[in-house]
Write a structure and sequence with these properties.
This protein has 298 residues and is an alpha/beta fold. 41% of the residues lie in helices and 25% in strands.
């Protein structure tokens, strides 16, 4: 088992010596000295336990073990070159499975409408999309990119902002008819609140009055869940006040199904970001989706 770590050591050097018919010629091709090539060749023979070459001052010839090893080495090297050329040819062509995770709000708010265009543009890309609010692990799950709202990525990942969505405090007409509308953020303590929370911890809702300091409102919700669509559905049926990304409730605000509250107090905007592991050697499929999302968001 220990020898497996050095399985290919010296193989290309030996192959080059045979191809060039001499140590000095091989040394010139490899950029080494003849003495270095001779030492590496001796090390290879020692590891294999067989003499591979008969050497004189003027010529070399393969031994029988050397002939067997050379034919195997040639196949491995030629196959490796073919694979390398194939990957280089495909390097700039978007293809293959793209794994991504997007929040429900983003999917229903805009992404679902954009997807048909992406699929038309890139017919060789297949998509594996996780639509959820859970905290996905890019590395362990083999995810190529994430889209997240408001959530900052770990420092070793790259995030590119797509756009901002405003936080909107909303309720239904039926709820407001029964309970009235809060006129100041601190009056929210007298209302049934529907809060978004991934881990069930106590939250604060933040507001800012024009030219005033930030207002922090402790939230003791009647309902807490990790899905903005559920929050919206409960607010629409009169079960409380929710604060949603505008992206999640644009249609309901336009139709009057939900009513905006506390409009004199702005809520901090939420950044919608695409998150990926590295710019270095970024696969074309991933780069294509990032560029597409940036273009559509502009």
């Amino acid at each position: 088992m220990d020898n497996n770590r050095n399985l290919l050591d010296g193989m290309y050097l030996f192959y080059t010596v045979v191809e060039q018919q001499g140590l000095s010629a091989a040394a010139r091709v490899l950029g080494h000295t003849p003495s270095h090539v001779s030492k590496e060749l001796a090390r290879l023979e020692e590891r294999l336990g067989s003499r591979l070459l008969n050497r004189t001052t003027r010529q070399i010839s393969l031994t029988e073990p050397g002939r067997v090893y050379f034919e195997s080495a040639r196949r491995i090297i030629e196959d490796s070159r073919i694979v390398q050329e194939r990957l280089q040819a495909q390097g700039d062509r978007p293809y293959g499975e793209l794994r991504m995770s997007v929040p429900v709000v983003f999917a229903h708010g805009c992404f679902n409408d954009w997807l048909p265009e992406f699929l038309e543009l890139y017919p060789e890309i297949t998509l594996n999309i996780d639509v959820s609010e859970r905290r996905a692990d890019m590395v362990s799950e083999g995810i190529d990119l994430l889209v997240r709202i408001g959530e900052l990525p770990p420092s070793d990942f790259i995030a590119r902002e797509l756009f901002k969505t405003e936080g909107v405090t909303v309720a239904s007409n039926s709820y407001l008819d029964e309970r009235g509308a809060p006129q100041h953020p601190h009056e929210l303590k007298n209302h049934d609140l529907i809060d978004f929370a991934l881990q069930g911890s106590t939250q604060h809702w933040y507001y800012r009055e024009l030219d005033q300091e930030q207002i922090s409102v402790p939230v003791v919700p009647r309902i807490r869940c990790n899905d903005a669509q559920t929050e919206k559905a409960l607010a629409m049926t009169g079960h409380g006040i929710a604060r949603l990304p505008e992206l999640a409730c644009r249609k309901e605000l336009d139709s009057g199904t939900l009513v905006p509250l506390l409009t004199d107090y702005s809520a901090p905007p939420l950044s919608v970001r695409v998150i990926f592991a590295s710019r270095a050697n970024l696969p074309a499929k991933t780069r294509s989706m990032i560029d597409f999302l940036v273009e559509k968001s502009g």
